């Protein structure tokens, strides 16, 4: 059996989807070493992993793109954050490789220095991606602003004209910094952003078509496995079992982005509706919020417990919670605030699995209408749920790691 070293960025949204894959590999007899957030190390050690924290210097660089004035500026700011982390996560992964002596690596797509260190290492390695892939494609609009897919020749012309505008700022910020890191590792420079993602022998992509836009030019390295869901261990609150009304889940990001107004807008929109609102706010100040009588506001509750009984999920557009709802056939109303959330929101809309409302237009009246419309779209959500189940989840991901990196015969997928 092999020793596999996994390396994550400092975000729970990038650690939690990885855990069921590591659990599956561990159950097959592989040894798992993990470098991740310091706050999660003890929990990961309890799962049987040889876990240790990533560099303090990486965790110290705050993901504060919410300060940007608009989505395009926020994207550029996020790129500068990942570039700054790359200066530290490249040597950090190198140290981990020296300490763990792995047979294979599994590296977070947002660890840009880690991806370079994995490439320079020379052994078998894979990248995992828990959000929409930012790859150029003739079949998809440029990544970032959440544009709908092109329809006809004018749409394709739109994409050709906008692609350099949308990606130009990103590449101008990203390439000099990353090529400096790569040069220090003895690697050739990147000519464009895509090169960083195409160098990898295997990309474990945690979604599936048709939620992701079908493309004729996917690299052969990409294996779509559907969402890989994991919640921290937690007792079910007693009040949840007492709820008899249909449940609407509303949640904000696990990384601070000033999206707490989504909670109050949902409270105001549904205060007089025959539903129970379950709200989670893992990263924002809720002291000023005014929950109505039909709402339960918690800092944290595992979403799976709520979604099993929900009729709709109102989200900020994080890929994790959005796909977690859709995997249960629960339609989604997405109010994106930035990051990859505009892309997630558009995919929900295009898939007919829910609705989207730009954060700039958020108010209780519009949100109420969007939630009601989403509730009527359960058929679209169930279609996506079936596609996710067919993709195979953690079993398919572990098969891909074994067959592509370890040259082990694949295991049969369990029925979805």
Characterization of this structure:
The protein is an alpha/beta fold. The mean pLDDT is about 90. Helices cover about 45% and strands about 15% of the residues. The protein contains 16 helices and 13 strands. The strands form two sheets. The protein has a seven-stranded parallel β-sheet with strand order 3-2-1-4-5-6-7, with helices on both faces. A six-stranded parallel β-sheet has the order 10-9-8-11-12-13, sandwiched between helices. The protein has two domains: about 5-225 and about 390-405, Glycogen Phosphorylase B (Rossmann fold, 3-Layer(aba) Sandwich); about 240-385, Rossmann fold (3-Layer(aba) Sandwich). It starts with a strand and ends in a 10-residue tail after the last helix. The protein has helices at about 10-15, 20-25, 40-45, 55-60, 70-100, 110-120, 155-185, 195-200, 240, 260-270, 305, 320-325, 340-350, 365-375, 380-390, 395-405; strands at about 5, 30-35, 50-55, 105-110, 125-130, 200-205, 220-225, 245-250, 275-280, 295-300, 310-315, 330-335, 355. α3 links the parallel β2 and β3.
CATH architectural type of the largest domain:
3-Layer(aba) Sandwich
What is the number of beta strands? 13
Number of DSSP helical runs: 16
**Tally of domains:** 2
The H-level CATH homologous superfamily of the largest domain, spelled out, is Glycogen Phosphorylase B
Helix share bin: 40-55%
Task: Specify the biggest β-sheet.
Answer: 7 strands, parallel
Beginning-to-end CA distance, first to last residue = 27 Å
A few lines on this structure:
α12 links the parallel β11 (310-315) and β12. With 416 residues, the protein is of the alpha/beta class.
């Amino acid at each position: 059996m092999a020793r596999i070293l996994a390396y994550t960025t400092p975000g729970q949204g990038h650690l939690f989807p990885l855990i069921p894959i590591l659990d599956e590999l561990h159950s097959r007899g592989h040894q798992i070493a993990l470098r991740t957030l310091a706050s999660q190390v003890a929990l990961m050690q309890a799962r049987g992993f040889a876990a240790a924290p990533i560099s303090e210097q990486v965790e110290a660089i705050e993901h504060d793109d919410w300060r940007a004035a608009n989505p395009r500026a926020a994207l550029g700011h996020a790129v500068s954050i990942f570039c700054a982390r790359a200066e530290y996560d490249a040597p950090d992964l190198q140290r981990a490789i020296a300490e763990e002596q792995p047979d294979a690596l599994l590296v977070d797509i947002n660890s840009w220095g880690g991806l370079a260190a994995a490439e320079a290492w020379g052994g078998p390695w894979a990248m995992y991606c828990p959000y929409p892939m930012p790859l150029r494609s003739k079949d998809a609009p440029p990544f970032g602003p959440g544009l709908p897919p092109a329809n006809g020749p004018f749409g394709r012309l739109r994409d050709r004209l906008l692609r350099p505008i949308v990606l130009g700022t990103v590449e101008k910020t990203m390439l000099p910094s990353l090529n400096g890191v790569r040069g220090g590792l003895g690697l050739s420079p990147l000519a464009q952003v895509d090169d960083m993602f195409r160098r990898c022998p295997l990309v474990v992509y945690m979604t599936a078509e048709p939620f992701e836009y079908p493309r004729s030019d996917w690299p052969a390295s990409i294996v779509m496995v559907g969402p890989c869901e994991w919640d921290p261990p937690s007792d079910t609150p007693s009040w949840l079992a007492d709820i008899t009304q249909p449940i609407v889940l509303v949640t904000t990001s696990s990384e601070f982005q000033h999206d707490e107004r989504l909670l109050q807008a949902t409270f105001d929109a549904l205060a007089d509706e025959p539903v129970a609102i379950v709200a989670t706010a893992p990263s924002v100040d809720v002291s000023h919020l005014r929950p109505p009588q039909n709402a339960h506001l918690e800092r944290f509750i595992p979403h799976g417990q709520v979604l099993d009984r929900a009729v709709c999920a109102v989200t900020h557009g994080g890929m994790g919670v959005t796909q977690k709802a859709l995997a249960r056939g629960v339609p989604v109303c997405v109010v994106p605030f930035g990051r990859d959330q505009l892309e997630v929101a558009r995919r929900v809309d295009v898939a007919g699995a829910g609705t989207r409302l730009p954060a700039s237009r958020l108010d209780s009246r519009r949100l109420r209408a969007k939630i009601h419309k989403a509730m009527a779209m359960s058929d679209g959500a169930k279609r996506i749920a079936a596609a996710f189940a067919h993709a195979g989840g953690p079993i398919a991901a572990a098969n891909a790691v074994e067959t592509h990196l370890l040259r082990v015969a694949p295991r049969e997928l369990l029925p979805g």
